[in-house]
Write the C-alpha cells for this entry.
Amino acid sequence: MKDSLTSSNYRDFRQRYEGVFGFFSPEGKKPLLVCLLSVEETKVNFMDVLGVSYHVNVNSGIPFDFLPIERKVVNIANDDILYACRKPARQWQRGVCAANTSIVSLCVPNRRLGVMFNLVAAVWNTSVPYAIAIQEFLAGMRKNVALDNRFSIIGESVYLYNTPIGSYESATLKVISLFKQEISDTIVRNNLKFKVEVINE
Amino acid sequence: MSETVRELIGHGDVRRIMLSDKVYKVTEASCSSPETIIGLELEIESWRGRAQEFQGFDFTEDGSLRNMGIEAISRPTKSKFVENLLSTFFKNFEITDGNYSERCSTHVHVNVLDFTLEQLASLALIYQVTERLLFGYVSPERKSNIFCVPWCQADSKLDLVSIITTGKWRELKAWSKYTALNLLAVTQRGTVEYRHLEGSCDVQHIMGWINLLGCLHNYAKETPVEKIKAVLLDINTSSAYDMFLQSVFGKHTSMLFTPDYRVDLEAGVIDAKLLFTKGLPTGENVLRRYVRAMEQAGLMPEANVMFQAGLRPEVVQEDDIVDDDDEREEEYTTMFAPVPVAIPTRPEVRMTPEMELQRDAVLDNLANTQRFFTPQRQANQELNAAVAGQPIQATTNAPRGVRPRNRW
C-alpha cells in the first residue's frame, strides 16, 4: 500500500508508519528498502540498510510503499536459514514491524530473532539466491540450505517452512508420504540428483 | 465427533433472532446455497443517514473508520434474501462508491451451528486449499491488509484439523480474530467470519462472494475429511486441479479464474497438507528413534545427530496468535497476585494490676481525645438511627458552638 506524508495526514502517518520498514519509491527509480525513523509535521526521516540517512518533506508527494513480507524461508550468508511469516494481531502499525512480522532462525532451535533491519533486508532482497546456496551445499560449503521458498534441508532434517517433514542422509530425502510429490517437484526443478523416499508411517 | 457446534457451545436457536422471511423478496435462482444463514457487517464512511434500525440492520460505531463511519450489522438472514436486502439498503441510504475507502471492508458471517466438528475440519481444509483463489476475487490490497491476514501467510501454532476432529475445539479460543477466515467466531457466535471482501456497494459483487462461500460450505458439509485428504494426495495434474475446482464451486468456478490459478491451487494444496503433519513420523522422529536405539545398545550417538533429534522441532511462537489484551492482563494479574501469608496469632497475655492501670490511663486519654471528634461521630449515629427509624437523641458532650443537626 502506497502512502505519503501530507499536512492533513500527519497524525495518522506517524501512528501507522513510525518505526516500520517499507520501500521508498520515487517515480522512475528502483524502490529502496528503508526504515522510517521518525515522522515530524514537516518531514519524514528514514535510513537505508547501510545506515545512510534521508528525509522527505511533507506534501512532496513521494510515496512509501508498505508491503507485508511473504511467508518463506531464505538462505543467509552464515549458513543459517531464516523463516519469515506474518502475525495476525490487533495493531495500529502498518508496514513490516515486530507487531505483524515474525522472523526466526531454523538452524538454532527455539531462537527468536527480532525484526531487525538486516534480517528484513535479508528476507526481502539480500539473501543468498537459492541456486547459489544449493551449489554451495553440494560443494560442502553449507550444511543447511533452503531449496526454494518452502523446503529446506537443515542438517539431517527436511523442513517445509518450519515444520520437519523428513530426514536427509547421503543424497536421499526420506519424507512423509503427504509431501513426496511436492519435494520431488522441487528436486527436479533444481536439477538435483537426490533420491526421494517415503518414511514408513 | 457427531456433536454439532450448537451442542458444543450451547448456543440457542438462531431462528429466534433471524430476519423474518416476509420482509424481503427471494432471489433464489442465483444462489448457490439459498438456505444458508448469513450475517453481514458493512463498514461505510461518510454516513449521511440516521443511525436507526432499518429493516433488519443495526448500526454501531467503528473506531477504525473515519468521516462519520459506521458499521451496519445485518440480522441473520438466509442467503436467498440477501440480494434484495442489500439493494434496498444501498438505495435507501444512497450509498455510492464514494462512501468507501481502503479502511472499509465487508465481513460475512456464515452460520456453522449445524456443522459437526468433522464438517468444520473439512471446511478449514477446503478453505486452506482455495484461499489464494478467494483472495483473487476480492480487491488486491486486501491480501496485505493487517486486519485480514491470509492463513497461508501466517504461521498458526494450532493444529487445526486435529483440534477440531479430536474434540479440542476450545483451543479455537486462542485463534486470532484478524485472520482472513476468523474461526474465533465459532466459539463466540457459532459462525465463521470471512473478512476478505473490501467495502463495496456493488450488490452483484457481494452476491458473487456469498455464492462462493455457499459453495465452500456445501462441499464441506458433504465431504468427510478423509475424502478431502485422499483428493489432496492424488491431485497433481492440471486437469485434476480443474476438476477439483469444478467439484467445489460448480457453475461459480469461472469467478476464480486468474492467470495463475493453478499455481495458487498447487500452493494451497501444500498448505492444506501441512494441517495433517502433526503426529506423523518425520525426520526428527526417525532420528530420535535412532538415538534411542543407540542408547539402548550402550553406544553414544553422534553429537550432531543428538542435537538434530533433540530440540529442533518447529519454532515455538507463543504470542503469535494471542491478540486479546484482556486475556493477557488476566494472566499477568494471576501471575503477580500477592501470595497469601499466614498471619501469626498474638499470644494471650495475662494482665497484671500495673498493666490494667496503664491500660485504663490510655483508654481515658483516648476518650478525651475522641471528644473532639464526637460531632462527626454523633452525626453518623444520628444518620444511622434515622435510617433505622429510631428517635434521635441530643448529644451532651459536643464542644461549644457545635449542635447536632437533625437531618431528617
About this structure: Chain A has a mean pLDDT of 90.
